[in-house]
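Appendix C: a fully annotated inverse folding record. The material below is reproduced so that readers can follow the format used throughout the book. The structure is listed first as tokens, followed by the designed sequence.
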């Protein structure tokens, strides 16, 4: 996990050596491995036949929903990691502050939801595995079932950590100190800096002449005011 410096989440547009929204996604390779183990174990050895029937059934107590759920959340999590890696590569090219904020919110929302889905999946698979009767097929595919359950639990911890990091990035980005004026182009309608406002209070700043005006010489060279 990398720490993001304050002021670099939403604000900078020049793309110069700034951390990006998905800096926590170097760990996405680990998440991808967890996801592959979960849905790969179920697809390869999660369907077994019984002694009474040659038809393949889900190893988790014959509950097709358990196998389908494990495969679905694992596969979607794998694709999501790939998506956020692509976003990470192009994040510095996003010039709009609003678009960057949407990306951070998407990261936060998806990580939070998938943490919950992994928790449901872990409880679902573990519960169905406890109810699975002993059989030859369950013995042969037992290692795959236990691997799917174990890495579902590891995925909960990993995605919760991503959610916390995404929340920290969002809080950093919404800090008003990050939106300093030097991060944005000057406003053409803004007033001329340094010009007196006529408030009656003497300014300590150096006086600057207004633009597009000529300095008038009130005493022409060579002319002397006659004395009366």
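Designed amino acids, in order:
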């Amino acid at each position: 996990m990398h720490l993001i410096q304050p002021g670099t989440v939403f604000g900078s547009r020049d793309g110069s050596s700034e951390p990006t929204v998905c800096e926590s996604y170097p760990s996405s390779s680990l998440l991808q491995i967890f996801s592959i183990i979960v849905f790969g174990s179920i697809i390869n050895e999660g369907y077994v036949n019984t002694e009474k029937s040659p038809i393949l059934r889900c190893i988790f107590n014959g509950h097709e929903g358990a196998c389908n759920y494990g495969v679905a959340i694992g596969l979607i999590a794998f694709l999501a990691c790939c998506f956020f890696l692509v976003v990470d590569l192009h994040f510095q090219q996003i010039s709009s502050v609003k678009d960057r904020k949407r990306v951070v919110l998407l990261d936060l929302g998806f990580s939070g939801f998938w943490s919950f889905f992994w928790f449901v999946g872990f409880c679902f698979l573990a519960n169905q595995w406890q109810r699975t009767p002993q059989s030859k097929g369950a013995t042969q595919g037992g290692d795959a079932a236990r691997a799917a359950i174990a890495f579902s639990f590891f995925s909960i911890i990993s995605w919760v950590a991503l959610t916390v990091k995404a929340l920290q990035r969002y809080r950093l980005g919404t800090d008003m100190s990050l939106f300093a004026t030097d991060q944005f182009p000057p406003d053409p309608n803004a007033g001329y800096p340094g010009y007196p406002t006529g408030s009656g209070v003497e300014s300590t700043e150096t006086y600057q002449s207004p633009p597009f005006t000529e300095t008038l010489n009130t005493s022409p060279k060579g002319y002397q005011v006659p004395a009366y």
